[in-house]
Each structure stands twice: as structure tokens, then as C-alpha cells.
Amino acid sequence: LGQEDSVVVVYDPGPPEQLGATEPMISERFTVEGDSLNWKIRIKNRSQAGMVLGELAMPLALNTCFAGETDMSEIYERRVMLHSFIGGASSWILAAPLAGIPPYLLIWAKEGTKLEAIAHVDEYGQRPDGWEGLINVFPYSKASRETRNWYEWYNNHSQAVILPGEELVLNFGIKFIQDYKEINETLFADGKVAVDVAPSMVLPTDMTGHLRVSSKKQFSVTGDDYTTIEKVSSDGTSSVYRFKFGRTGQHNLTITDVDGEVTNLHFLAIEPIEKLAKAHAIHIARDQQYRDPKSFRDGQFFMYDAEEERMVMKPRHGHMSGGSDECGLAEPLSLVWKNVVDPNPDEIETMEYYIERFLYGKVQQKETYAVSTGVGDSYDDEQAYNRSFNYPHVVNIYFAMSKIAEYYGLTRFRDSDGYLLMAYRTAIAYFTLPMYKNNALACGNFGESLYFDLMNTLRAKGYTDEADELQVHLQRKADHFLPQPHPYLSEYAFDTTGYSDAYYFKKFGGGIDGAIPVVSMLRATRGRQPSWPWFGGDVRWGWGASKYPYHDELCMNYMVPQNGRCLLDFYHETGEIDDLRIGYGSFTANWCLVRPDGVARNLYTWEPQRMTYDPWTSEMGTGLYFTYLMACSYAVDDPAFGLVGYGCDVEGSIDGHISVIPHDGVQRRVRIAPFSLFIESHAVKINRVDAEDGGKKLSLLLRETLGKDNEDKLIVRGLPEGSYTLSANYTDIGTFTSDECAAGIRVPVTAGAAIPVHLVRIK
Predict the structure, then answer these.
(1) Cβ(561)–Cβ(537) below 8 Å
(2) Whole-prediction pTM
(3) CA distance 117 to 136
(4) What does the alpha-carbon distance between residue 396 and residue 625 come to, in Å, rounded to a whole number?
(5) Consecutive 10-residue runs of the chain (763 residues): their mean pLDDT?
């Protein structure tokens, strides 16, 4: 029915023919209101009996199907990714084209309307491979939980009672937006609450969270008995809060406005990252390495089943137990990079046993450095060496071992240069040996981004010819990637595994401006809704190398940290705070996969009928190891919160003294953005940093954890130009220019000690 500025759709079953319950009359009116469309739904009870509405679901039939599509332009320019915040009164859904080019479609709940649950409903038919299925959002879902055997979802479940002759009215807004900031602007303008959250929705119990709530209405913010909330400031329409969780598990922060409308923000509290990292490494070394000198598989790491508490020796597919591929290389990657930042001699011995007994010589040919797609039980089993995706994992294992040898001197079989050259030779094999579909050139192979660090390390150590050779291959690939609008092909047409490397190759070939198209894509494909399964993450479909191959939408996959690392890098280049927020959310997110006892799981599904982790470790370690590279404590002047810390406690003011106490789990890197300072240690932890006078005076407290006298390379970038005196443990070390500090200065450290270090500019 067309009416001037409206379109009306009516479902009228006719007048009731009998007393008692009957079908309701339903109407939908779409009305133009300024730059948006108002979608009003009326459900009228025309019977003489009360009606209980136990389930009301609204399918979102948008262009989200990637099944069978191979045209990159079609996927990234026309198909959309849905980001749904289903948290009650201020719920919203965003449909963003994958390339990140606006406009984006925003749908939001208006006054008197809420959304409380979301699910894929299979009654619409079987989902083809490559499609998440049809999303349904639920204003009411109590009956859904009962009839579909759902778990209790994050907002609980309710129903609506409609008395005879009365009607239920729901209102939604629909509009195109040009920028992600317009989500909050739209909610605020419409009388809903708008929120900003830092540093993440997966929050370790030793990290402080920050929340800003803005609304035209008065509101309150509450948590459970294990949440402490402190209001920091308020200006009438916006209030800023600090909060912490005292117990692990899911927590809601609940915002209630003066009209009784409720919005839930969904957080997950986890143990401190340092504790989880130690426990996970202990578990891998103790429980996931197979040792039997008589066996061909001696030294191999296997997947672990968190459900059955055992190694997975015979999974359903051979590649899962072949010692290569993502499943076979995930555990050693996670273990070795943990030891780059937190060394343990027993764990390093475990890694060398693995390399000497299994990796180098069985998975990898010693003569050619070719990496197998997977091994069997003897040398006689046929092997292939043409899966390019396996090679970066091996390169990065050797590269990490080189760092461990350099920083701590704890390796026995090779020194730092020995492992460095093994990494180099494997990288050259990757570029020069025949690969399936020429994928070493045509695709981003995740983990490949560290080849740039490998090249720079070779050059710094005097291996100029080797660095030049690697650079030729990297430049060739960068030249191949740079002109392509969508260089995201992987083993599948739609996959997130090539995103990170596309960013770094485009940046290498065209500078930071060359990487901007990838950043736009990353922003569009990563969750920004304040709900822990999604925030900072990317979405994939199908359970792959998992114990239970459900056809679900998956969160916390192994590309979450790697792709988030690109946004953090872009923040370092540009200072764009939104990239810091989403990138830091990616950093903490995957740690929810590690239990306090160190046992890891793979992937999470938020589906109400499951809400579970897959119990196999599978590929998760190929993402988790990047968190050791990403870990950093940021002191920033955030436009929403003022001077705050991401992964650290911060005190002071931007025009005076700033102190930083890191809680990022690694404690090797600190960025003090207001002073443009970046501080990095190699062999010791940074317990505290105090900066004064715009960075002209620095005090650091370093902590040696290995229990041996050492010499750390301390890097301090961004110092105001000039010369600086350096002292350690109150002993003068010397005078250094700001450029020398940026290149790295040597600081002696005492076994097991906390060492005060002072760096002061000479006036």
C-alpha cells in the first residue's frame, strides 16, 4: 500500500471467527525520515484472549553469501560483512562491503525496541559451503530457547504479552553511513546510548577497562558482584568509567536509562596474559610432544584434545597429524615465540629436540630446505613439498630460535647466526622451489610478514648478500601485489589468511599510502561491536581442522591477532585511535582460547545452541604466537577517555609527568604517545616507565627473569634531539645521542634483579 512518503505492508488473516486465540494482524510501515528510513512493525491482537509472543525473529537477508564466488571484485565490492551488536535497547547491525568503501548500511533499534538474541536458523534450508547462513535477530526469544534447546544467551530471554485489542509496536531505523563514527552519532541523536570501550572486550583481570557512555537521557551503569566500577568524569551527556573484573568468566556491564531501557555490554574476563602464556608453554612442552627415539615421529608435536585430555594421534584427516601444515606447526610456533620474550631452558631444550629429531631432516629436507606437506610413519612414505603456506611457519620457528640464542645464549645445537641462516635458506626455498599454483607469489601466506624483519636482521648482522637476495624476492612480490585492488586470494576465494601479508607487501611496495586499501578492508571485516566474541576479530565459516565440524560462524580464529597486528602498525604510523582500539582488541581476544591450566582450544561459536570452544588445539597456535610480537603497553591521550593505558596502568598528565606500569603479559614494549616515545627491551621485562619534560627525562625499572647476568639492548625511539646520559643501577654507563638511543644501547643487568635505569638529556 503506497502512501505519499510511506510504504505499508499488511498481513491480515481476517476477523476472528471464534472466541479464543487467533492469528494477529501484522503491518509494516517504511517511512522516509530525513536521511533515514523508519521501519515500524505493529502486531495487533484482535482476539478476545491474551496473547503471549514467545518468539519473534527477523531474518536479515542481505548480500552475505560468498558460496561458489571466485570474482574478487564481486566479493570485496558487492558482498557485505554483517557486524551485529545484539545487546538490548541500543542494538545495531552494520552491513559493510568487504573492501571497506562506504556507504555502509546501519540498522538500529529505536525507542521502545530492543534486540536480545541472534542466531542462524536452518529452517530456511541447507547452507552452501562458504555462506554463514541466514542471520535472524530476535526481539523476543524465550520460546526460542525452549523449543530450540538454546543455552542462556548473553541478554537472557523474554516474551511479550499482548492483551485483547492491543498491539505491540517495534521501531527500527535504517540508513546509509559514510564513517564508523556515525554509528554512535546516530544512536545518540535517536535517544539511545552510545558507547566507547578500551582496551578490549576480552579483558585480563589485571588490566583496567575504560568505558564512555553518552546519551540524551539520564542513565546508570552497573555490573555484577565481581566487577568494580568507578566514575571518572561526567559532562551532563557523557560519563567516563574505569572498571576491573575480580573473577574470570563472562560479565555484563548494564546501562539503564531513565525510561528503563537496558543495554548490555558483553565482556569476558580472563587470567593475566603472562600467567596464561607460562601455563600454555608448560603444557605444550610437557603434554604435546611425542618422544620415542625408536619412532619416526620422535620429537613431533601433536594436537591436543581439551575434552579428552590427550594428544590427538589419529585425527580424521592425515594432514592433521603429518607434523607440517598449520596443525603440525602451531604448537612449536607458540612455544618458541613465548621463549623469545620469556625464556625457559627446559622449553628451549624441547624446541631443539623437536628441530633436531623431527623438523630438520624429516619434515624438511636438509639439502634443499624444502618443507613437506606432511609426513607419515617412515622415510618411505611419499611426500610433497609444494604447499607454500607451510614454509613461513618453519622460517619463523628458526627466526625465533635465532633471537633466543642472541638474547640469552641458551641454545646448544646452533648459535644465533646458525638459526638465522636456516630461516633465510627456508625463505629462499619458498620463493624458488615450485609451489602449487605459484602460491608463493600469487597469495599472501600468513606469517610471511616476518620475512621483512628477517631481511633487516640479516643486513644488520652483516649478511648483506643474503639480505639483498631476499629483498629481490620480496620486492618482486610487492610489485605483484601493489597494483591489485583485492590481493586477498588464499587457498579459497574468500579467506582471511592473506590479509596481513597483503598489508605488509603493499606497505613495502608503496609506503604507508600503498597499504591504505588493505586497512580499509581490515576495518570493514573486523568486529567493532561491544561483545566479546566479535570485538577485534574476523569471521570465518566452517570448523575446518576441528573435532566437531559444525557449519557455524566462527570467532577467535587464528588470523585474529595477525590481522589485528596490521591495524596496530597503522596506528603507529598515523595515530588513528580507532585502529588502536580494534587492533588491541585483536591482541587480547585469542587468549580466551587458553584455559588457566594452559590447555588450549580452537575457535569459538556464539550460536545459542552451542556457545562452545572446539576442544582440539588445531591451528590456533599459528595465530597466538603473533601476540608475543604485538604485545605492547600504550599510554595514549584518547579522545573518549583522556590519558589512559591500553594494556597498562597510566597516571599523570600530557603536559607533565606520565608513568606507565605494563600489564600486557610480555612487558617488552611501551609507547607513550603524547611524548612520541617508543621503548623496547630485548632480554628483560619493563616493570615501569616514568617520562617527564616531554620525554627528555626517562626512568625505567627493568627486571631480569632468567636468573643470569646479561646485557640488554634497550631501544628508545622518539627522544627529543640531543645527547643523553645513561645510568643503570645508579652506575654511569655513558653519554649517547638520541639517534644512538634509537638504534639501541647496551645496558648491563644483574641476575634476578630489578634494575633502575635513567636516561636524561644534557641541557
Answers:
(1) no
(2) 0.96
(3) 8
(4) 10
(5) 77 72 88 95 90 94 85 93 96 97 97 95 69 89 94 95 94 98 98 98 98 97 98 96 98 97 98 98 98 96 97 90 95 98 98 98 97 91 94 98 97 98 98 97 96 98 98 98 94 90 98 97 96 92 81 89 98 97 98 98 93 95 97 97 97 95 98 98 97 97 94 96 96 97 96 96 91
